[in-house]
Amino acid sequence: MTRRSPSHQNWDLMRAFLALHRAGTFEAAAQLLCIDHSTLRRRIQFLEDELATRLFVRSDGNYVLAPAMSPLLDAALRMEESSRQFFDAQLDPPSGKVRVSMIDMFAAWLAPFLIEFQNSHPGIELDVSTEHHFVNLERELVDVAIRLARPRRGNYKMRKLADVHFGLYASQDYWTGRDVEPGQPHALLALALHFTHGDHGAIIGEADWMLSQLPAGQVVCSTDSYVLLRSYCEIGMGLALLPEFLGGQGQNLIRVLPDVAPTCDLWLVVNPETSTSKRVRLFVDFVSKTFRSKMQESPLQ
Q1: What would the DSSP string read from start to end of 33-78?
Q2: pLDDT by residue (tens digit) across 108-138?
């Protein structure tokens, strides 16, 4: 192949190159960069066209660096380190407010780990809200959101944090104190999260889903809070669909009907207007590393 002179030097291309090298697949690499995999493919293709060489080859289902590409990798790593030093070279430590939106149960799960972030970055103020709808990050001036679905609209930067496994729970008293033969009606506890579904695909646990997926029954209570949903379940008001990490910590709760076991994706969504702010980048990196490390110890299930 005849090598062309690069038309421009684009750091996004280098980041795409390093991400695919580290992740091994386009899907995983795209998540590292908070972009979709088709965008990543275009960047890799553009870089290969500019350099007039093939950068990666397939091996055991993954993409690995092509032979003789080690010098290019070394150069890209030096560029990455220089970029990090450039953005970190400031006289004053990072400061200001990071506005975060998430469902209450994830705010509670993350809370014990935030002291580490505070100790490392005392100048950053966290403003955490627990809206039970999917906020518009630009309109509502939110920097970071943690959602149980990937947004379908908006020019957001995003990365997948985890798979969240759900199960159906009941209190011991409820389950043993009534006839639980198949077909018998149940009292159902449902979510009422009050957001439009055109933005996402998360509907599990809502009233229509409960009535269509679970044994015959009647919705006796709805709430927009997973924490309250568990509390109502604990006192024996009915069956509730809960994340396993939340239901497993409930008092006197038991897992019932094990065939009902849906899974949702947990996504970190970042406002593109503030994504380059150092305080936002620090918080995004902290949350990503926390979920990754803590899930290895105790997955969200």
Answers
A1: HTS-HHHHHHHHHHHHHHHTS--EEEETTEEEEPTT-HHHHHHHHH
A2: 999 999 999 999 999 999 999 987 777 778 7
